[in-house]
Amino acid sequence: MDLTYTPEQQAFRAEVRAWLDAHVPEHPLEHFDATREGFEAHRQWEKTLKSGDWGMVTWPREYGGRGLDLIQWLIFEEEYYRAGAPGRVNQNGIFLLGPTLIEFGTHEQKQRFLPKMASGEEIWAQAWSEPMAGSDLAGVRATAVREGDEYILNGHKIWSSRAVFADWAFGLFREPGSERHKGMSLIFFPLNAPGVTVNAIKKINGHVGFAEIFLENVRVPAFNRLGEEGQGWHICMATAGFERGLMLRSPARYQVAAKKLAELWAANKESADPGLEADVVRAHMNADAYALNIYQTASRLMAGAKIGPEASTNKIFWSELDIHLTQTALNILGPQAELTHEAPDANAVDWIDDYIFALAGPIYAGSNEIQRNIIAERMLGLPR
Amino acid sequence: MDFTLSEEQLMFAETARSLFADSCTPDHWRRMMEANEAIDPTRWASIVETGLTLVLLPEEAGGIGLAETDFALIAQEAGYVALPEPLIESAGVAAPLLAALAPDHALLSEPSATIAIAHPANPYVANADSAGGIILHADGEAFLATPDQVTLTAQPSIDPFRRLFSVEWSKDKATPLGPNNQNGADWDLAFDRAALFNAAFGLGLAQRAVDLAVDYAKERQQFGKPIGSYQAVKHHLASAQVAIEFAKPVVAAAAAEIGARDTQARARVSHAKLVALEAADKAARASIQVHGAMGYSWEVDVHLFLKRTVALTQTWGTPAHHRARIATRIFTQPMGPDQTFAREKTNA
User: Fold this and answer.
1) Are B7-184 and B187-347 equal in CATH topology?
2) Is B10 an 8 Å CB contact of chain A?
3) CATH class of the region B7-184
4) pTM for this prediction
5) What would the pLDDT profile of A317-374 be if each residue is shown by its tens digit?
6) Which domain holds residue A73?
7) Are strands B133-138 and B125-126 parallel, antiparallel or unpaired?
8) How big is the A-B interface in CB pairs under 8 Å?
9) Measured between CB atoms, which of A281, A317, A373 is closest to B246?
10) Mean pLDDT of chain A
């Protein structure tokens, strides 16, 4: 146990900070889910990141990464959020599919997909859910029929984040006639392939961050299947582990928010309810606890451990802390809470937008109810 | 940066775990409650024999001279069995303080003697009646007295194993130990250690409360199925487990950093105490709920964990006191993602 950074880690932090200071756009980019322009501006930012070799720092060099360890990744993320750098438009690729590809992909697949993922040249959407397969993901009905070296895909995916503007998607497809967890494969398909129709779905904030995807006799090479045929469920659970457990939500994100909340409190404490200070303290504690938990997980993984069902506790914790934190900000703002960023009296931080975004947290990446079932059954051993 | 425990530390915790598992079962508690006893001399002897009371004591005072991280692991195991004996206050708080005040004191070489501490943070002194000595202080001077040199008024606690007393004493009947702060003796450090080890103890209480409920929910059938198969039951226990998982690394970090003695370290100790005992409260109440009416009975063991949780939550600094220390960290020190492990002196 040694909770201090080595001189090398400190030097690395300084290097990241200097690069970000020189490159982070002065004005925030339009949100990548709002318009095509916002999306492309974020793609451009990904290219800028890659030009500094910061595309995906934990990946091996041969696949477009920088070959860094998880502590360095955390330091990078801390500096990234500290600098207020743009959101990662390719998070479905770099944080979800990428780590799974590294674990289950062939060398050729890694060579084909990872470098373009790290550079933002190819931006990924996820295509997990279907109209009849949400929390019960094993209810997926979309099919993949093998024909020579190709799969023919048919089906209807929905709630696909980023799919409106993205280039590629990954999802589960089953062998016709197979049931439940068996017979599913994880397959990638280009969103502009013949037979793919993408319809935007507006989110409650008005952004087109979701889409439904119709696949009609879409042909993709068998090369696009990750892992063995029929092993999709197993692989998908590994992806979900990374998503929930480590990479999707950096602690740094909440530490920056907790800092801004403390500043909001300091600026408004004369007029706000004094009882709210306890919530400001709580928001800091939550963000701090989440950071410590992730550092501990990163240390364990570096010592050879694997992510297990405890990943489900992380997803519950960060999604609940985010709602508590942003709601505390609204409570401090009082009558200004409802103002949008266009209002002359609006706060510099768009807390209402952050709050609305936070409300999605308990739903995506596997609803918190499902996470509690996983904890109860796989960590605690309660019967199904 | 390395947030993992060493093999030796894990082995030490394992030793404590098996000692407690064998010697501190619900049957043991029951017998002690019936006999109205708070210390089991046989168990205490084996705790002493295993060296658990020497962990934090410096080598010059005959101890092993290990660190707070090591003792916190033992405290967590003690919490898992709701250990009745005052291991934390005696070996984790009072003995190291006495060793700093008077390294050669005879009490330190009496292996089976416990030491009580009258700390200004607490109105009552725990286990003062059975202690070999009580550390006291007045006007910047520290003193030691035996129970028969002071007047003890019992203040019965809801927890049958916590023996609380108001202590009246006069300097002329106590042994002076010299200035409060000589040889680095530090009552604030004693407070932080007590808060930290009670946090670690709380983690153990919390996990045991969940585990008892899990065992019961697997067995108890209603509507033709084990109640643990119902989501309403699962979700109570999963939520408690989430609270435990996010208290653990805070306790671990607080133990590793306590020696820094700065605003950040104090805030982290306070954070650990708050969240570990909140987890224990959540777990104990979920456990009672999952046990149903059985959980509200004297017969089922969960109430012991609830009662200890209530006691420890309010002692060694109330939640409000600990929140205030975290607020001090937030509003006087730099905040942000690069500050997780920052120290005050580096920022100065």
Assistant:
1) no
2) no
3) mainly alpha
4) 0.96
5) 999 999 999 999 999 999 999 999 999 999 999 999 999 999 999 999 889 999 999 9
6) 7-122
7) unpaired
8) 167
9) A317
10) 94
